[in-house]
Design a protein that fits this description.
The structure is a single chain. By secondary structure, the protein is of the alpha+beta class. It folds into 5 domains: 3-229, no CATH class; 281-369, Beta-Lactamase (2-Layer Sandwich); 388-487, 2-Layer Sandwich (Beta-Lactamase); 493-618, PAS domain (Beta-Lactamase, 2-Layer Sandwich), CATH 3.30.450; 637-737, PAS domain (Beta-Lactamase). The radius of gyration is 52 Å and the shape is flat.
Length: 803
């Protein structure tokens, strides 16, 4: 009989025996299967290395040992899947315990020399091989269950064969490495034994996985499919300990976490800005509604997608670089940027985490495109129509409206109590004197929660109340007490129901990298997170109630109070920017709060987000100061100064420029003004503008300027090009009126021509006189010569006479 025939028969015997014993477990129980597995384990220790084959020329495989070992692991995995952790645990401990007893028995018999070991085939067992294999077998069993349960928890059930194969292959490979390193490290055949063992166990893993898959799917399928897909909530260490209570708590925790996450998502979906989160692989993990709207997509189409695959046009842009900078430095990045595909400006806040990025961005296009202007103060509304009452300064009621009477069950004609205290339960009346009146006469107002009593039933009605002094408009002297209250029964009931979920919400938002707060609709704060406290520089207790208002800069407090009350009156979102002031710093915040509603869709409070925008505010203030400074400078320049865009439309002019055209600045900005000059000048001006814009070469030109209805002026115009940080081209020009200089030059030229003519005439006259003088001179000289000649003749005659 060939060796391969023996291997096939051994495999069929062991696998079929295991499956038959297990198939009839309901009749026989699991004991026969346990005994069979113990026996084959003994057979492995006895004859595991007796039979070997060589493959690929030099790789050594022990097929009997591999088949028996694989069958044991196969059986443990089958029992774990179908019978659970307890049965698998009993099998594992049974096999290990029996192996330890056999090991001890062999050791005792060997030391006592009770039998001739060399002559008794039953004890031809290598102690080191047997003990190492037994210990390793325990580790293999535990490792198998851990790998299997982990894969089941993360891989879809349709890949069940793959789960079985990977589980067995991982354990078989682990066993091959540890077993061969322990027993054969340093042996000349170590490499051949190790690789041969791995090759053999790879085929064993595939065959036993396939066999187990077929058995579970087609043969032993009468039980619930839950065992097949292993969807029981087992932990990876359930083979050692399985606690139902722990699993139940874990499941409840997951449900609570899911509920809390849903609340946070709802809150983030209601904020005005975009809010997204990315994982370490640049894939979307959360996209709120506003972000999806701004990106022109739905959240569902983005979740799990790669950001640069979905928006390749963003690669290389400034926010692309900012995202990577935040990841590399693990520091928060703040910046404003223009996104050309959407033609919008966005304020971006990038918060890095070890797991990715959280990004908040808001559309600030309107703020960028409009001038900073002071908002008009909102009208103040301090009263509510639910309960309105008046009382004397000593507390005697004098008026109560219909809604107030209805609230406390007083008929229209029924007399009011003698004192305000009559509206309250007896155990609260002392507070009216010690707390209410004291606060009213010190600060003019008391606000808080209390309870009215129903005059018919005696039941208590929770209220939110404001009591204040009504003063004479002329003398400012107090004349009465005003009371405004409203029924908050529904809110109180809702608060009670939300108490537990609120606590979970606070835990979740405590470390969110933006300020988060929660209050009732009057601004009575009941929660702020750590980031908010960092902005405000106060403790949690100090921020509660209306204590948070102490953090607002004194110059902003009245404005914020009016905005909040207007928000309440119109049941709208609260959106504002204001400052927090601490001893160390002043922080500008951009705050958005949205309403929270009860089951009847009635507003009962607000939840909001606060972002630190100090850097942006400082930058805007600097720009504003720079703009004012620049305007003052150019308006004090005597020569006309102007700036044009690429279409020759004026964007900046000074006072001197407006004076040339005798127009107001509003009538100049945005226009070319070519219609105010002659057609020849229009063509020249626009031609030079275009040339300078396109080439960037400076131009200085003397030209005429004929403004409609005015005289023609001579001007010298210097035009240069300016390119801003966004690549936008502008034309900067300076005009100098040279009309008077040109007139002077013409006069000088005229005088110079007249002088030249006069010089010419005078020169001709002088030349004439010189010629006449020359003639006279020549005449005199001739006469002198003749006189001299006569004198010589006379002298000669006289000498002759004397002789």
């Amino acid at each position: 009989m060939g060796i391969y025939t023996i291997i096939i028969l051994e495999f069929l015997l062991i696998s079929s025996s295991i499956l038959l014993f297990f198939k009839f477990r309901k009749v026989l129980g699991l004991a026969p299967l346990y005994l069979f597995l113990g026996a084959v384990r003994y057979l492995q220790a006895l004859s595991g290395t007796m039979v070997s084959i060589t493959v690929f020329d030099d790789l050594i495989i022990y097929p009997i040992s591999i088949i028996i070992f694989s069958g044991l692991v196969f059986a443990v995995l089958l029992i774990y899947i179908k019978e659970g952790a307890a049965s698998a645990r009993a099998l594992i401990f049974g096999i290990i315990f029996s192996n330890l007893i056999l090991s001890a028995l062999f050791g005792i018999m060997h030391m006592g020399s009770l039998v001739d070991i060399n002559s008794t085939f039953a004890f031809l067992i290598d102690d080191k091989y047997f003990i190492t294999g037994s210990i390793l077998l325990l580790l293999d069993f535990l490792w198998l269950v851990i790998i299997y349960q982990f894969l089941v928890s993360i891989i879809n059930k349709k890949y069940f064969f793959f789960i079985l194969f990977i589980s067995l292959l991982t354990v078989f490979t682990f066993d091959a490495f540890v077993f061969n390193i322990t027993l054969y490290w340093g042996n000349v055949r170590f490499y051949n034994l190790l690789v041969g063992n791995i090759v053999g166990k790879f085929f064993a893993a595939f065959v036993f996985s396939f066999l187990l898959y077929l058995y579970l799917k087609y043969i032993d399928k009468e039980e619930s499919s839950t065992s097949f897909v292993a969807n029981q909530d087992r932990g990876v260490f359930s083979i050692l300990k399985y606690e139902k209570k722990y699993l139940k708590l874990k499941s409840e925790k997951q449900e609570l976490k899911k509920s809390l996450t849903s609340q946070l998502e709802t809150s983030l979906n209601n904020i005005s800005g975009g809010f997204i989160s990315l994982d370490a692989n640049w894939c979307y993990t959360f996209v709120n509604k506003k972000a999806a709207e701004l990106l022109g997509r739905s959240p569902e189409t983005l979740l799990g997608k790669h950001i640069w695959t979905e928006f390749p046009e963003g690669v290389g842009r400034s926010f692309y670089k900012a995202y990577y900078k935040a990841v590399e430095t693990q520091e928060t990045v703040y910046f404003d940027d223009y996104y050309e595909p959407l033609d919008k400006w966005f304020e971006n806040r990038i918060y890095p985490t070890p797991d990715g990025l959280t990004i908040y961005f808001a559309d600030i296009t309107e703020k960028k495109n409009t001038d900073e202007k002071n908002q008009k103060l909102l009208s103040l509304i301090e009263t509510s129509d639910e309960f309105i009452g008046l009382a004397t300064l000593d507390g005697k009621p004098i008026y109560l409206n219909a809604n107030g009477r209805k609230l406390v069950a007083l008929e229209k004609e029924e007399e009011l109590p003698d004192s305000i205290a009559g509206f309250f339960p007896e155990d609260y009346r002392e507070n009216i004197q010690t707390e209410h009146f004291s606060a009213i006469f010190k600060t003019n107002k008391w606000t808080g929660e209390a309870a009215f009593k129903n005059f018919k039933t005696g039941e208590l009605i929770p209220i939110e109340m404001s009591r204040f002094l009504i003063k004479d408009s002329e003398t400012s002297e107090p004349i009465a007490l005003g009371i405004v209250a409203k029924n908050i029964t529904e809110r109180k009931e809702a608060e009670e129901k939300l108490k537990n979920s609120e606590l979970l919400f606070r835990r979740l938002t405590s470390n969110v990298p933006v300020g988060i707060f929660q209050s009732d609709k009057e601004g009575f704060c009941n929660y702020v997170n750590d980031e908010w406290l960092e902005y405000a520089g106060m403790s949690f207790e100090q921020a509660m109630g209306f204590g948070w208002t102490d953090a607002i800069h004194p110059e902003d407090q009245e404005r914020v109070r009016q905005q909040w009350q207007q928000c309440i009156l119109n049941a709208k979102e609260f959106i504002s920017e204001f400052r927090f002031k601490t001893k160390e710093k002043i922080t500008w915040l951009s705050v958005k709060a949205v309403g929270t509603f009860d089951a009847n869709n009635k507003l009962y409070g607000y939840i909001g987000v606060a972002l630190d925008v100090t850097e942006r505010k400082n930058a805007e203030e600097q720009v504003k100061r720079s703009q004012i400074y620049l305007e003052n400078i150019i308006n004090n320049i005597g020569d006309p100064v102007f700036v044009k865009d690429a279409e020759s439309k004026l964007v900046i002019v000074n006072n001197a420029f407006c004076s040339i055209f005798d127009l107001e600045r509003d009538a100049v900005i945005g226009r070319t003004l070519v219609e105010h000059v002659s057609p020849e000048e229009q063509e020249s001006f626009l031609k030079i503008d275009k040339q300078v814009i396109e080439t960037g070469v400076e131009n200085v030109n003397e030209e005429t300027l004929t403004v409609t209805g005015k005289e023609t002026r001579m001007i010298s115009t210097k035009k240069t090009r300016f390119v801003d940080g966004n690549g936008t081209k502008f034309l900067i020009g300076i005009i100098r009126d040279i009309t008077e200089r040109k007139k002077t030059e013409l006069e000088l030229k005229k005088y110079r021509n007249n002088l030249e003519e006069l010089v010419k005439v005078r020169t001709e006259e002088v030349n004439s006189k010189n010629e006449e003088l020359q003639r006279m001179n020549n005449l005199f000289v001739g006469r002198e010569l003749k006189m001299k000649e006569l004198k010589n003749i006379i002298k000669e005659l006289k000498l002759k006479n004397d002789n």
